[in-house]
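Reader question, answered in our methods column.
A reader sent in the components of a multi-part assembly and asked whether the whole thing could be modeled at once rather than chain by chain. We filled in our standard form and ran it. Here is what they sent:
COMPLEX SIZE: four components
ENTRIES:
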Amino acid sequence: MSVERTVELEGHIIDSGRMQACFTAVMDLGGSFEVEAFDVGKHETDESYCRLRVTAADDVTLREILHELHQNGAVLEDPPNVTLEPAPEDRVVPSGFYSTTNHPTEVRYDDAWIPVEHIEMDCAIVLEPEGGPDGDPRAYTKVLNAIESGDLVATDESGIRVRPPERPRGSDGPFGFMQGGISAERPSESTIRQVADELVETAENGGTVLVVAGPAVIHSGAGEALARLVREGYVDALSAGNGFATHDLERSIYGTSLGMDVETLEHPRKGHKHHIWTISEVIREGGIAEAVEAGTVTEGVMYECVENDVPYVLAGSIRDDGPLPDTITDAVEAQNAIREQAREADLVLMLATLLHSVAVGNCLPSTTRTVCVDINPATVTQLLDRGSAQAIGMVTDIGTFVPTLADFVLESDAE
Amino acid sequence: MSVERTVELEGHIIDSGRMQACFTAVMDLGGSFEVEAFDVGKHETDESYCRLRVTAADDVTLREILHELHQNGAVLEDPPNVTLEPAPEDRVVPSGFYSTTNHPTEVRYDDAWIPVEHIEMDCAIVLEPEGGPDGDPRAYTKVLNAIESGDLVATDESGIRVRPPERPRGSDGPFGFMQGGISAERPSESTIRQVADELVETAENGGTVLVVAGPAVIHSGAGEALARLVREGYVDALSAGNGFATHDLERSIYGTSLGMDVETLEHPRKGHKHHIWTISEVIREGGIAEAVEAGTVTEGVMYECVENDVPYVLAGSIRDDGPLPDTITDAVEAQNAIREQAREADLVLMLATLLHSVAVGNCLPSTTRTVCVDINPATVTQLLDRGSAQAIGMVTDIGTFVPTLADFVLESDAE
Amino acid sequence: MSVERTVELEGHIIDSGRMQACFTAVMDLGGSFEVEAFDVGKHETDESYCRLRVTAADDVTLREILHELHQNGAVLEDPPNVTLEPAPEDRVVPSGFYSTTNHPTEVRYDDAWIPVEHIEMDCAIVLEPEGGPDGDPRAYTKVLNAIESGDLVATDESGIRVRPPERPRGSDGPFGFMQGGISAERPSESTIRQVADELVETAENGGTVLVVAGPAVIHSGAGEALARLVREGYVDALSAGNGFATHDLERSIYGTSLGMDVETLEHPRKGHKHHIWTISEVIREGGIAEAVEAGTVTEGVMYECVENDVPYVLAGSIRDDGPLPDTITDAVEAQNAIREQAREADLVLMLATLLHSVAVGNCLPSTTRTVCVDINPATVTQLLDRGSAQAIGMVTDIGTFVPTLADFVLESDAE
Amino acid sequence: MSVERTVELEGHIIDSGRMQACFTAVMDLGGSFEVEAFDVGKHETDESYCRLRVTAADDVTLREILHELHQNGAVLEDPPNVTLEPAPEDRVVPSGFYSTTNHPTEVRYDDAWIPVEHIEMDCAIVLEPEGGPDGDPRAYTKVLNAIESGDLVATDESGIRVRPPERPRGSDGPFGFMQGGISAERPSESTIRQVADELVETAENGGTVLVVAGPAVIHSGAGEALARLVREGYVDALSAGNGFATHDLERSIYGTSLGMDVETLEHPRKGHKHHIWTISEVIREGGIAEAVEAGTVTEGVMYECVENDVPYVLAGSIRDDGPLPDTITDAVEAQNAIREQAREADLVLMLATLLHSVAVGNCLPSTTRTVCVDINPATVTQLLDRGSAQAIGMVTDIGTFVPTLADFVLESDAE
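And here is the structure of the entire assembly that came back:
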């Protein structure tokens, strides 16, 4: 006794790979399909439409297949309204709650599609029937630990529509569409020039640039170049950790990073004390802004952030020394601060940090452009896999990347 | 006008590399030395002695040189008592406070050497003149954020003696002395057998084995083998994160890891919901132990920990989903819990996690034996560099390492 | 003045990604398309058909677009016969010669499609009008340095049809179709079990298994397990280098690999002489078979190859010591020997060698199943990128992989 | 019944680590030692002296220990003359022949120490009693395949003295002494500046700079910068392969590398034909110099080599397409050509190639300064392990390294 359902897809479903993904999912999961209708877009600008009847041996299999099709943007023929259930208590979602993708999403409520605000992966969707500005219904994401008793949570995918990103018509510039991998075999300087162009264009258009930076930016000697970009107004927010800030501050206070003089490369020794002394100095001052004000810190990335009112989030980690007073030690609180940054961002530069990049990436919708730079190809691959539709991945040395980027950006600025 | 000081070294200073390190440090930092006395140990079991007069152009250089010599165990001729200063307020150390190494350390107080308890890197040393059991003086480490106003903190290195580890006489077994690097060119199964022997021997001698495990242990299919080791009593404590526990619990509840059936390898798809549903189930139950009790979780590493009273610490991170109720979200609180684990450990197995391994490694003295296993050579190198004197680093696949280890351990047990 | 051409595609063109690739290529290269006809396969077993009119601003652009479409299996409407030109001299192809893909290919001659024999990437196609068994026309590949004056060489792609691989209907087993990447997040032992199943099945069906092995197989202690597989008849040919053979022979003659005892792990020292002594011993004997016959070599992979008449190719390299008398030092001659091996192979296991795997991979059609195993993810990615349609990539430790594989294979055999 | 021998060491045996290595070797191998005499150098410029009596349980163990001590520069008390045996036939060494290290070496003949010419690892030493210019004895290395029947070959280490490199007194500049590892945590641009200074200084002193380059130099867009360095006279010889030359020539002929426009990054597609067409063009012309002369090749690294009479060796490999007529396809012949280059070199830059770097490294004495640059840390580690006493290893992106290096070098030149 087989079971079946009919779904519809529309859009640039061939060149975005959605059609392929749907056909493949049915076959992989052991189902069968019949194409009931297929209207191919005649030109590259026309959208296509497909109606697909899916058959499976049992309900469980059918549900698994429909789940895959749903994620690729298929919608049930004659979709029902979304199913909502109240959360039984704080932080507890109803059983079978809908877990979000990072793609633009809509829920069907009262026979109309409502966009879900603040889309982000692995969240619940909460609907407020009269939560909108004019008492309209409103839907938005909530992470599990923010769920409050009584929240109306979406619990089935039938009334939910996902819009996976499609290849932009017209040039997509340097950002490859869903490339999902990085080639080590690309000309480095030309690629950096493209990133510089994006950065300049975003700045000129009043967009928000979020830089996510790891301690290697400082160790590798790129701190000064990043500080220049902050000073010149190309960075609108910084997301980093206690280690990044400490190394940057050490460079200002002692002229060293991990005890080594960044210019002369002298004294690259273990057991140096500058690192921990820097932390104790800043604790003594009461914080980074206070240390800048007191004249203890006179240059560097953190200095420029303070001087130029660029907001920063320093998220704590279990490997931190100290930590600095500015570091948010609670992971949930830090995630909330990062989430605010991520929602504002139009362009995200992830520089040599896996931990902070994943944390930021977790909060980004798939539509935000990102640039991931790391010397470890596994890190770049992992970040691109998390699913920005428009992303550049670059396996390079952060110590030459940032100075070259800054040169290209500021050259371009001078023109 | 040059300045000079005389220091003494004793022990197996040639084959431990301490002599070489001292000579090199003087030359690297631009000083000069004169060997005033050198009594070489005649046989391999005899210790050597060296008295060295160091000359430098100025006080700053001399201090830098003496700092390096100090770290290699050199002591000033006629060492003074340690200098102590009260902390001006909570979390604030006196200027110029002494920052610890991870080697056994003594402070000179009242003309006697007192061992520093709980030695750990990058801490302050606090001395309580009458803090010992019989009103004796007592010295111990404190991390910066634990400093309390009025604590007597060591502020100069002249009255402090470090004892860097030396090559053990007799065999040092598989643990290479200060090898500081790993060779990829070693026979894998023979190396795993040596780790198994260490594990069995530690267990038989009543030692404490701490396992630090990352999520890859579960993804790679090694969860069942680790669960066996817990069940059979070879694991005394577990240090992990929210991700490890979630994936392990998902495997028990849904039979999958990241949505893929671990046995059949079916459905390796993105967008699966098991991961986040697992978290919501455990939140609903109130915690892992409760989920075990309720019969929701019936196998796996966390299950065996609960059933066999093996204590675990789940340290939070900014990339966590959920998190599970058992996860300690505050980084400082989590570090304190990890510190307790680290102090008890006689043998530490670090399995496929950089973040948690560094966090644990930060709390370990250099004398604790460690085994670092990861598929990424950079991770293994970084962990070994942190300075256990007796360490095995192995670049291998955790998914074959743990099952092979468990087989060897349990075979050996059966004999 | 735009130019245009019409092409046709047929087959499982949606789920194999060919349609997507064609649409994308036109857009990327600045052309425009019109879908003149599209018959979608109604069920997963039905083939689809698409007729596409492509327009571009100029001939150069159109040619670039058609080249991409050609590579994805598109054929000109009413295709002409292939254009042939005689090679002007030995090793010199006519200008504009057609360079092959690694997919099954046909040339149109005398208004009929003729399959190209021995398809392999980056070759020329030579057509002999009466070269077939019955005086039929015959087409086959030739590498550039094998071209002879007067060979009739294909010089345009209009009369050539490429058949890119398609996703097999029915299960494709462990071999992901065109996955083009590897996930580190797969259960290791389950994956190895699937490779074992393939190996057993290939052997049972009388297929030919080619093992490509690097020196790390021996260093990592996996030599004995590979020798077992040879002895038990699961390896039909071996492709390796001078280093692999030397290390394997050293293990037999001295019990060491790079001077280290493979069992006890003793004496892992530089400067050992066993390696070079092994080579000099085998030179003295006259070759590997002679050394086996003389009783100098009594175990190991090379020993089993000699004893079980498993043919091997040892290809030379500029980093070789010696080399052994069996090593083919000329690269072109070695490639020819490898080419013979590659053409026979039904299943290729590439074990921990980039150089030899690339050399073998260069000679393989896209239809040969391959398994690529290496601890370096970049190596596995690079090998999978070279384009086998059915490939397993596995990032693991060869030192545990081969013994586990041998156990699974021989278990399965015992059943 | 134990056996014993007495050896002597002299030089900077403490800070070079030789004493430590000797003590450790005796203990590791199960022997025992007695220091019969030890005169420590009083100042950093004074040499030390040690006489060591080594005892072992049996002759085999003693021989192993003495082998290790020998490699670290220990010499038997009252050393005998070297033992010489004639090679029984071409390419066949006498049993027990001495296999060289890469350190400066002397043989004792007729009661005098004679330096061994052209020292290189894993060779035999041949002595010609009257082979010197004035009928003096002469000793030199020969690789195994160059041995001729009757050559007098050294067969025991007692009459041979190795001089392992010692830490230079005075600054050793950027080249760390025997650092044997690379730190990823160094400022990139400062390190590149040091390499630039070395390059300029070597050129100014009339030294010979050998560049070893892989294809990634071209893919990454660094070809033009390397071409500049050749044109400006900073490169005296080039060691590369068929792939490097082909990609460089493709860039000149088609403006692409692997089919992608290096400036605009357009058309990064598989299946491009430029690569193989480039090879066929150069074959047609008869070689690279002919292609330059004919005006087919008008820029790039190979062009500048031809125009500026910079000799190059293109060594063949089994993964080559073509190959180009200039490529030496026989591995032994190619090694001989590389050997000639290596012997002349004062400074070797190894740029993004493991295969060619190892081949060159195999021919270098430990005294030649080398710079190893690769994005893969395992490659850099492996190259440094091969034992140059003065080496810089840098994990960076070759695509930004070479342009930055060229800028620094030519800036410095302009001053």
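What stands out: The mean pLDDT of chain B is 92. The domain at 79-170 of chain B is CATH 2.40.420.10 (conserved putative lor/sdh protein from methanococcus maripaludis s2 fold).
Send us your own complexes using the same form.
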